[in-house]
Amino acid sequence: MTDNGQQGPAAAGTAHDFDLFVIGGGSGGVRAARIAAEHGARVGLAEEFRYGGTCVIRGCIPKKLLVYAAGFADHFEDARGYGWTVEGVRFDWPALVAAKDAEIARLEAAYADRLRQAGVQLCASRASLLDAHRVRLANGAEYRASHILVATGGSPFVPAIPGAELGITSNEIFDLPVRPDRLLIVGGGYVACEFAGIMNGLGTHVTQLYRGEQILRGFDEDLRDELAGAMRARGVALEVQRDVVAVEKAADGLLVTADNGETHLVDQVLFATGRRPNTAGLGLEPLGVELQANGAVRVDAWSQTAVPSIFAVGDVTDRVALTPVAIDEGQAFADTVFGGAARRTDHSLVPKAVFTQPPSATLGLTEAEARQKGPVEIYRTRFRPLLNTLSGRQERTMMKLVVGAKDRRVLGVHLVGEGAAEMVQLAAIAVGMGATKDDFDRTMALHPTSAEELVIMRTPVA
Ligand code: NDP
Questions:
Q1: For the chain, which terminal residue's Cβ has fewer other Cβ atoms within 10 angstroms, N or C?
Q2: Coil vs helix vs strand at 399
Q3: pLDDT tens digits, residue range 115-143?
Q4: What is the pLDDT of residue 169?
Q5: Calpha distance 427→424 (Å, rounded)
Q6: d(CA 80, CA 89)
Q7: Intervals of CATH 3.50.50.60 along the chain
Q8: Residues of the chain with CATH 3.30.390.30
């Protein structure tokens, strides 16, 4: 039972109803429950809403389906340059929502089935902790478990401004009965930028107000600038250094007042202003489980809290709030505690994509982060992808490599353009193995692709 020679926490005694009780049926909780059960543990899982969590029900999966839906607008437009006559094209929002709902229902059922097949006892109920080994369900049932895993995820945060309750969040936008003609989005993060692209692509007039200097704080500056320019060129009315101070009902919609005094009359306001961990009401703190200022459960590298029998994975721990990370944390926990194979999630090199229009994706250090650690070489290219020639689309693809000047290691990969997310996933293998710029240079190009540009950038720009 080793991970770099370290001993992980092992399973405790069995004088309980369950070896593991999981609170929360999202990405992290479901994986942990299933793998623990497959390792032979007696597992219970409580979920108060729907199996699959944010990712499946109102996050990654429905979002990507909407991204595809919006992408057809590009295809119809671009097709003309390729000789097609495109006539009578119409978009039906309720039809998309219904199709999306059917797919999500299918996925949710598959999640629940796999858990049942693994022998996990499912409790369709909210649960809270009574002590270090006992949980109580909303229906009054109580269970004893040698281990408890908190995997309750997070919820959208809405700032306390007058009229904020008139707005919606990412929880509601997936199920709107009608597509808003005018949408104002507050925020400049993942959700804000992704929905700006989706709704703009589907024909909504989108205004996006972000309080900071540039969208996607924390991402590489060139990626942020390229994406902001592309979003504006596609028609998103993006304003930075602009916040919302009030929302009120008007005769013909919602009147939004910005901090410069300007007003915007829209049909819906989407607050995409971040998420907070779901820990309220779980009864964690009185038991000695430490919470951070934002409510996140404090855990060690083994996902273990200050109370040895209580663990936590996923967004509720506010480490890296992404589905594959939660899944890996759940798997590592189950393998360590119930599978005799200690392993900890490596949070150091997580590929990330923002499914904007065009998509953007990133891996490793930004140029600014890398410069703080030592001298770097920057390789950057901007080009019009082949698809955009006949279509007449002016949009460029941007690719950037951040390379350590001394050891030539590729430290960061930052892309904006079609296929960015798919490319970064594969680049993550090479970069994770310690690839150098010379390894990239030695790699034969695959022509004609956009990805080939990643291996033919020869001259540093800085
Ligand atoms: P983010 O943290 O990405 O963005 C939140 C945005 O809201 C930021 O621009 C932030 O500004 C702004 N904001 C925060 N508080 C306020 C406030 N009081 N007033 C005005 N603006 C405010 O959160 P999201 O909700 O977009 O996404 C949550 C997480 O979910 C992401 O961090 C990501 O981990 C995950 N996610 C991943 C996706 C993917 O992988 N493609 C897609 C969607 C979500 P500032 O920068 O100034 O703090």
A1: C
A2: strand
A3: 999 999 999 999 999 999 999 999 899 99
A4: 98
A5: 5
A6: 13
A7: 2-56+95-155+276-338, 164-272
A8: 358-456
Residues 6+ apart with CB under 8 A from 249: 163, 166, 255
Closest approach atom of ligand 1 to CA 218? 46
pLDDT at residue 5 in the model: 53
Q: Distance (Å, rounded) from C-alpha 148 to C-alpha 302?
A: 14
Residue with tokens 């929002």: 93
Say what angle helices 190-201 and 60-79 make with each other, to 10 degrees. 40
pLDDT tier at 1, thresholds 50, 70, 90: very low
Q: Which of 273, 316, 347, 424 to mutate to test the pocket of ligand 1 (most atoms within 8 A of CB)?
A: 273
Expressed in angstroms and rounded, the spacing between residue 361 Cα and the centre of ligand 1 is: 16
Which CATH fold would you assign to the domain 2-56+95-155+276-338?
FAD/NAD(P)-binding domain (3.50.50)
The alpha carbon of 71 and the centre of ligand 1 are apart by a number of angstroms equal to 23
SS (HEC) of 195-243: HHHHHHHCCCEEEEEECCCCCCCCCCHHHHHHHHHHHHHCCCEEEECCC
- Report the separation in Å between the CA atom of 60 and the middle of ligand 1, taken as the mean of its atom positions: 14
Output the residue whose Cα is nearest ligand 1's atom 4. 189
* Residue whose CA lies nearest to ligand 1 atom number 33: 321
Q: Which CATH superfamily is 164-272 part of?
A: FAD/NAD(P)-binding domain (3.50.50.60)
Is 447 designated active site? Answer: yes
Nearest CA to ligand 1 atom 41: 354
Ligand 1 atom nearest to CA at 217: 46
pTM beyond 0.90: the answer is: yes
d(Cα 113, Cα 119) in Å, to the nearest integer? 10
Architecture of domain 358-456: 2-Layer Sandwich (3.30)
Q: How far is the CA of 186 from the centre of ligand 1 (A)?
A: 10
Q: Which residues line ligand 1 (CB under 6 A)?
A: 159, 186-192, 194, 210-212, 217, 243, 272-275, 321-322, 353-355
Residue 235 to residue 206: CA distance in whole angstroms: 8
DSSP code string of 239-282: EES--EEEEEEETTEEEEEETTS-EEEESEEEE---EEE--TTS
Atom 5 in ligand 1: residue holding the nearest Cα: 274
